[in-house]
Amino acid sequence: MMFLLVIGLLVISTYMHTTESCCCMPEKFELHEYVEDIFTWPSAMIQTGYANISFDLEVKKSVFFFYDVKLNGKDVPTPTYLFDHSSGFLYVYDLRSKYCKKMPIGRMNPVCVPANQSTDTTHLGAAKEMLSVKTYQSTAGNQTTSTTVTKEKCYLISSELNDSEYPTSLRKQFYGTTLGIKDMSVFKIPAICKKIFWNTQEIPEVSRRVFHPFYL
Ligand SMILES: *[C@@H]1O[C@H](CO)[C@@H](O)[C@H](O)[C@H]1NC(C)=O
Ligand SMILES: *[C@@H]1O[C@H](CO)[C@@H](O)[C@H](O)[C@H]1NC(C)=O
Ligand SMILES: *[C@@H]1O[C@H](CO)[C@@H](O)[C@H](O)[C@H]1NC(C)=O
Ligand SMILES: *[C@@H]1O[C@H](CO)[C@@H](O)[C@H](O)[C@H]1NC(C)=O
């Protein structure tokens, strides 16, 4: 159960290849993310958390450093997810508990906003500090997603996903976005990951789905 929550935080988009995309994030960027995941089934739960994310389509790597993840207000130690598509593996590790799992992953996709409907442009802020944003909506199966991005460049601002069958509401806010990767060492595979054998059995949810670092 806990693991499912973490994956829910993380982001998987099973339908993004079947719906139209309106626009995509740049090839290299870093941002911070605040996530709020509300479950009403099988019991009422709220999970919140932050992630520092680096994404580089050119070297085919992305990494998610989670922190301050809380489930119903209690701390949930959350590992780092390092997607190394250049070698075809995902590393899930926690340096404090000296834990690392390695499992095969598929190809890397750009971070694109799925959309088959968009609302009008709206403006955040005022006067010289005004930002034009657009909100896109997409429905696939039982999931409805709404994503707000900057109108000009498609930089992520927020997203919300509801699932009618599996009652959950996943909201994300993106902030502090910068272009490029400041320090490539974020993609370094930690030494503890070099000793282990890879294991696909323990995290079946990962290998069964199409993995994508943003739940858009
Ligand atoms: C996340 O980013 C902030 C601001 O750059 C930094 O202070 C913090 O140490 C980072 N946390 C992790 C877990 O990477
Ligand atoms: C968006 O596309 C999906 C899948 O193609 C479809 O099921 C859904 O009805 C479409 N929604 C709208 C608003 O067009
Ligand atoms: C949508 O939810 C219904 C039950 O409410 C379920 O039978 C159906 O398989 C779900 N569809 C998809 C695409 O997940
Ligand atoms: C999700 O559900 C909430 C509460 O019912 C609603 O206000 C919101 O508009 C929904 N968002 C999407 C993307 O369907």
UniProtKB/TrEMBL annotation:
Keyword Signal appears in the UniProt entry: yes
Q: Which UniProt keywords apply?
A: Signal
Molecular function (GO) terms for this protein are: calcium ion binding
One matching Pfam family: Ependymin
UniProt KW Signal keyword: yes
CC per GO annotation: extracellular region; lysosome
Q: What is this protein called?
A: Uncharacterized protein
Organism, by scientific name, is Mytilus galloprovincialis
